[in-house]
Amino acid sequence: MAIYYGNSASIDNLTVSNFQGPVQSYYANMPVFQGSNTYGLTSALNLVQPMILPYDVSASYMRVLMTNTFNSTTFGTSVISINNTHGESWYANIYTLNNGTLSLYKAALASWNMRIGVSIQASNSQTVYYSITYPVTGSYINYTTSYSLNSATCNVSTTNLTQWNSNRFVDIPINDRIPAGDYWIAFQRSSSTVTSVVPSPSATAGTVLTGVTHNDSIFVATQINSNFAAFGAASNVSTQGLSLGLGAYSATAAGATSNAIAISAIQTQASHPVVPFQLIRGSNIY
Predict the structure, then answer these.
(1) Is residue 7 part of a domain?
(2) Mean of the per-residue pLDDT values for the chain?
(3) Cα separation of 144 and 201, whole Å?
(4) Which one-letter DSSP state was computed for residue 44?
């Protein structure tokens, strides 16, 4: 007797169409993850990898592992007020394979936004404030804080950002049921920064807060650092990944979701990185 989950089942050679298999609430592509290698995602590059689901999964979000850093900065008090807004979007788009082309099955992204403001009053009295909106377990939370100081130099500190520094989970909302089957995931990151200064920006004042923007990389598992090729092909073929569809695809537009990706357009990467991730259903799970 054999039972296959998904859209059909075979039981003692009897095929049942539109079979509804059991639905699970958790899946991990890499239950054991070792190492500390990271990969810096960019806005024009998709890191693509296979995903084989052995059963149907109902997921609220996809969780990936990330490392984050913030940097302090200082500047003089000649500026009256300055605001810096830095936004990022993390993509985990899911694809299916059809005749050598990956077709978009589900678009998924999480957004992160940080606003830093400085207000300088008379006698060097200053107020620095932060407002951060971030994704957690499929929802969004907003955090605000501020501090005051009196100095001829403004110090934009990261002391109040310790809850976002170092190694963190990034939860990308899914809110869907994904049937058992073969899929591919394309990870991508885009960002934007807007700075406003009063009085009108100078070459210095217009960039004083760029040092406190968010820098991040996702954790990856690496493999043998060699290329493989079919018999009769050049040994350094860069479009034949260690696994089918494993590598990087250059997006035609920064931060855009590609509706289709040709397998032949996916280029191998050094050490063939694979992103560990989890599909999880539920909220307030840490």
Answers:
(1) no
(2) 79
(3) 26
(4) T
